[in-house]
Amino acid sequence: VADGKLEVDLEALASSAAHVGGQAEDLATAHLSSDNQIVSAQTGWVGSSAAALAVKTETWLETSRRLVGRVGGHAVDLNTDGITFATMEQENVEKVRAVIRGVGGIAGSAGV
C-alpha cells in the first residue's frame, strides 16, 4: 500500500496462482496415492485392529480431503483475484481514456 492506494503486481499474482495451482495438483496426486494405499492396507485386518484401522483411515481421508480442498481453493482464489484486479485495471484505463476524449484529447486540461 502506497499513499493509501493498493498496488497489485498482476504478473506476480498470476505467477503465484499458477505456482499454488501446481502445488495443489501435486498434493492431490500424492494424497490420492496415499489414500489408496491406506485403503488397500485394510484388507486382511480383523476384529478390533480392523475397527481401529478403519477409524484412523476415515480420519486420514477426511483430513486429506480438507487439506487438498483448502490448497486448491487458495489457488482458485488467487486466480480469481488476478482476474478481478485485471478487470478493475482495465475499467480504470477506460475511465481515464473517456476523460481524455471528453476534453478533446488534451490530457493536461483534464489533470491527467
Automatic annotation (TrEMBL):
InterPro entries the UniProt entry points to: ESAT-6-like_sf, T7SS_ESAT-6-like
Pfam families for the chain: WXG100
Alphabetical list of SUPFAM superfamilies matching this protein: EsxAB dimer-like
Protein name: WXG100 family type VII secretion target
